[in-house]
């Protein structure tokens, strides 16, 4: 289960935890990593899927560690309305600009067509359970897609990527990391965030125009293939949940789909496009992995040193879908 050194880490906290593990500072126990001190502190790998799908599989020692810890840290504080509105603001185009003015005509039209398709399909994608909770397709569509004409293309790309039947079916139940944040609040624990919204958002906004158009084009091509039944997504959220529940750390960490952004490197791409895909991949690796690891590592270390008497529980995403 110890990650092989030659593999690529797709999740920042795992990278940090692996370092600590190698140095003998922590013990490995499924998705809970104990930092030996008194009281102990913990790293816990969460996953961005409905908590009901995984909660029963989270080992009791992880739940106890959470209960016992006085201070809980998340990547972002998602229960804070400021965080949510800052995230939304960061995704917007500059004032006065619209997607239609920014995107090449062909891409804009395909995007519009795809969103119309999703809107049409949404009612059939929803479960009886969701409808029972008063969640309606129109409402859900607007919650995810609303105001799309004002969003930056990179966020449109991520949105399109997540507008799938599986993701839609999972809406309405808090994802595991959000559930833990709500529990921490309910149990009146002290909470904190390891990152600022800008630190997560600005690197994504920093991709240049031709790269973003490439990414959006590839994402649309993929969705269009799916729609036409020519393509099956090879690694689904279901697989991610299965691996997580089996404590199969490496599959979750090392799967391409566990990273925050989709992977465009595709063996059938023509050479020039392959270069662009590789540039995007290394940009994200640099900005979202290495720089972020370093930043988070420093903050974790500083917190542990500043408050030696406190028991911390650091909950970081192990896989996002
Ligand atoms: C975007 O960045 C890539 C890689 O750094 C570069 O080759 C390309 O010329 C840039 N394109 C624009 C429009 O700035
Ligand atoms: C989208 O990608 C396809 C296939 O790689 C390419 O032929 C087409 O020119 C691209 N469209 C745009 C607008 O970049
Ligand atoms: C790889 O790229 C080609 C050309 O853009 C596309 O037709 C194909 O669907 C892509 N495959 C996957 C798995 O995305």
UniProtKB/TrEMBL annotation:
One of its GO terms (cellular component) is plasma membrane. The keyword Glycoprotein applies. It is found in: Cell membrane; Membrane. Divalent metal cations. Mn(2+) or Co(2+). Signal peptide: none annotated. The chain crosses the membrane at residues 12-35. One of its GO terms (molecular function) is metal ion binding. It comes from the Eukaryota. Belongs to the TIKI family. This is Metalloprotease TIKI. It comes from Ursus americanus (American black bear).
